[in-house]
Amino acid sequence: MLGWILEAFLFTYSNSPLRILDPRIRVLLTIELFTLSALPNVFVKAAILLAMVLILGMIGNVFSKLLKAMIFAGIFSIIIGAIDFYVNTDPIRALGVSMRFLGIVGSLSIFFLTTSPDELGYVMKRFRVHRDIIFAFLTAMRFVPVLLLDISQIIDAQRSRGLEIQKGNIVRRVNKLFPLVVPMVSLVLERSNHLAEAMESRAYGSVKQVSSFKELRFRPVDRIFLAISTPLMVLAFYFVLKF
Amino acid sequence: MISFQSVGFVFQNGTRGLHDVTLEIGEGITAIIGANGAGKTTLVRHMNGLLVPKLGNVFVNGQNTRDATVAQLSRMVGILFQNSERQLFSNTVEEEISYGLKNFGLRDDQIGAKVDEVLSFFDLSDYRGKSPLTLSGGEKKMLCLAVVLAWEPDFLVLDEPTIGQDSINKERIEALVRRLASKRKGIIIISHDVEFLWNLQPRVIAMSNGSILADGKASHIFSKRRIIQKTRIVRPQLLELSTILETVSNPFSSQDQAVNYLKDLMNKSPLKTSA
Ligand SMILES: Nc1ncnc2c1ncn2[C@@H]1O[C@H](COP(=O)(O)OP(=O)(O)OP(=O)(O)O)[C@@H](O)[C@H]1O
Ligand SMILES: [Mg+2]
């Protein structure tokens, strides 16, 4: 289960064609798709947008991981659809609402699957976000896999000391996760302490202006992609908002 | 008996973990050696079902690990994990030890007695009410060992037990291993610490790239140049000495033995009379 969520949202260094593009373009694309998915409640539009997200996932070579994200989000999507149906008693509309949610999650998932924390850092730096904020943001992002790994290690340790996870109904199983809260909190505190010590030992914050190892530059392929995708997106927005 | 039958394992990211591993481990001391990344930890994680083979089967006391829970298998196979320090999760040292005992259904008085026993064996009684996270690195590892020993599994797996341990604790571990072996338990030790292993004269399984490279007596395995190279170890000093003194067919297995031999040699030496 944890492994699933990990795989559905976490960047792994693989060859995705989308990674040729400048990360700023990926940010733009995600914002566009995200907004588009968030707008319509109409079934047909939501379906088309969902299809767009899936096709982008295919192009980006992250389709199977994207599907995992979708299946995970599907649980919530069903709940959301059910609530909408209960309120509005319109099955087609409810289906549209469900799909819209899937589209939103999908576009986010594609972004995170194809963008490394470092690239995100470069983008933020380009937009002149303060260094400490970038650092805090990226650290938080990097902490997610570390924490999930910590949790799974502790669960493994508990199973190796006789904890039966597989037994019992869902309530009992969820109950068994509560003993994890205390060790998790202390581990997070311990980890962040270690991190702060390590950073300071490597002279973080000792100079005002740090030098930069890598800068972002637009390349021809980025310009071509922008030239093609921008009109398409404008059209898509027009279509979604007008009809 | 733990038995691996043509076991293959591949990690989710495609890394090969184990390749066609067939072996049987019974009572007594068994050492597993191999370079970093050879697959030693992956092998032992199959022994209590934390990993389930992609190919082949693993049996623990006749039970296929596919059909048993990790909890059931852990009753028989206790593992001291390589990064065990990261796996402490209780509020106090005492709770840390009793956690497993409760899960395995021991009675309260049994649990109390066991906790006392292991705490005093590992010299941790003073820490009883303290948080495990405040212990030193070596103490944490000893606590983890105490935790596993408490329920007396048939097999004890030690993944790098001597790393970071002072000489007293190393001797403690060695004595413990010998005692368990005499009680007809199976002890499986993963280690790069050849001197520690040599003292125990165990059966040695050498691994490389997820496969078994060799399997045999310590004196035999540690004498082979190819195995030494592939497992990236340094030959034990007593074995080295035996080679120099040409007693390698029956190498020294303890320091005392070597010292006695050298004393004998000195007494017989013509140099001594002339000096
Ligand atoms: N969770 C994992 N996902 C992917 N690959 C892994 C995972 N765990 C281990 N590996 C890989 O499997 C191989 C064997 O790892 P293993 O931990 O069994 O080595 P080891 O023999 O215990 O090494 P060491 O002496 O360093 O502890 C290594 O190449 C490692 O990179
Ligand atoms: Mg290991």
Quick description:
Chain A is an all-alpha fold.
Explain what this protein looks like in three dimensions:
The complex is a heterodimer of chains A (243) and B (275). With 243 residues, chain A is an all-alpha fold. Chain A folds into 2 domains: 10-123 and 215-242, no CATH class; 131-201, no CATH class. Chain A has 10 helices and no strands. In chain A, helix 3 packs parallel to helix 5. Chain A is flat and about 55 Å long. The two termini of chain A are 40 Å apart. With 275 residues, chain B is of the alpha/beta class. Chain B folds into 3 domains: 1-76 and 154-167 and 176-234, P-loop containing nucleotide triphosphate hydrolases (Rossmann fold), CATH 3.40.50.300; 85-152, no CATH class; 236-270, no CATH class. A 6-stranded mixed sheet of chain B has the order 6-7-8-3-9-10. Chain B has a 4-stranded antiparallel sheet with strand order 2-1-4-5, with no helix packed on it. In chain B, strand 7, helix 6 and strand 8 (186-190) form a beta-alpha-beta unit. Residues 11, 13, 15, 17, 34, 36-42, 82 of chain B line the site of adenosine-5'-triphosphate (ATP). The site of adenosine-5'-triphosphate has 13 residues of chain B, from helix 1.
Q: Care to count the β-strands of chain B?
A: 10
User: What fraction of residues of chain B sit in β-strands?
Assistant: 15-25%
Instruction: Output the helix-strand order of chain B.
Output: EEEHEEHEHHHEHEHEEHHHHH
- CA distance, first residue to last residue of chain A: 40 Å
What structural class is derived from the secondary structure elements of chain A? mainly alpha
Tally of contiguous helical segments of chain B: 12
How much strand of chain A? under 5%
Low-confidence stretches of chain A: none
- Structure annotation, total helices of chain A: 10
